[in-house]
Design a protein that fits this description.
The protein is built from 8 helices and 8 strands; from the N terminus they run E-E-H-H-H-H-E-H-E-H-E-H-E-H-E-E. The protein has 225 residues and is an alpha/beta fold.
């Protein structure tokens, strides 16, 4: 096995989380728009990719989704647009916080490895999170799945990150919380996969990661060594 010299990270729910959940923001958006709730936040999250063709900007995607949800509920699409605008006004992309141990992990690994981010999400949104966390200087490249390349688990975004870092799959690991996109994607691209589930009690997945960690602090021990 080649010596590991490169570490790639997922962003959302791996390095950071929103201070307020989608459900919290959606409840405020309905109230501000003066509209009775007609869908749940879980539906928005689960069906988000259905509307990705609406544009590169998450605000356009959200607007298309909420309009559709309104029509499906027998409401005027204008209700959906009003809620989407209120949601956008409340969803401050800078209001994120580190997942426990993430800041220490990035700081420690940056001393010995080349670091990059492979995230699904538009650059306008993800760049604000990275800036708010104050870790932009730690990463030599950020690849946005769905914009620079197909979304994970397609291997292309991982390949673009490795190319930017002059690294090979055998010398790189990818750390992420999602089995479907991060573990499967890293495996597809030939990287060593490190699974960091949000719930440490979550049972082992059907897609096997190379390593499982219960906390981002476990990265300080460099489990792949």
């Amino acid at each position: 096995m080649a010596r590991i010299d490169t570490v790639l990270f997922d962003l959302d729910d791996t390095l950071c989380q929103y201070e307020r959940s989608p459900a919290d923001v959606l409840a405020i958006a309905f109230e501000r728009a003066g509209v009775q709730p007609f869908f749940e936040a879980t539906e928005y999250v689960d069906r988000f990719t259905e509307f990705s063709q609406a544009g590169d900007d998450v605000r356009d995607i959200r607007r298309a989704a909420f309009e559709t949800f309104a029509e499906e509920a027998g409401r005027d699409p204008d209700c959906g647009r009003a809620v989407a605008e209120a949601f956008a006004g409340e969803r401050d992309q800078s209001r994120v916080e580190f997942r426990a141990g993430a800041d220490q992990a990035v700081e420690s690994l940056a001393d010995a490895y080349r670091l990059g981010v492979v995230t699904d999400g538009d650059p306008w949104m993800q760049s604000q999170k990275i800036e708010a966390l104050g870790i932009g200087d730690a990463f030599e490249t950020v690849v946005h799945g769905g914009h620079d390349a197909p979304t994970k688990p397609d291997p292309e975004p991982f390949g673009l990150a490795l190319e930017a870092l002059d690294a090979t799959p055998g010398s790189a690991v990818h750390v992420g919380d999602s089995v479907a996109s991060d573990v499967r994607g890293a495996n597809n691209a030939g990287l060593t996969s490190v699974w960091a589930p949000l719930d440490p009690k979550r049972p082992d997945p059907s897609v096997e990661p190379d390593y499982r960690i219960d906390s981002l602090r476990d990265l300080l021990d460099e489990p792949w060594q």
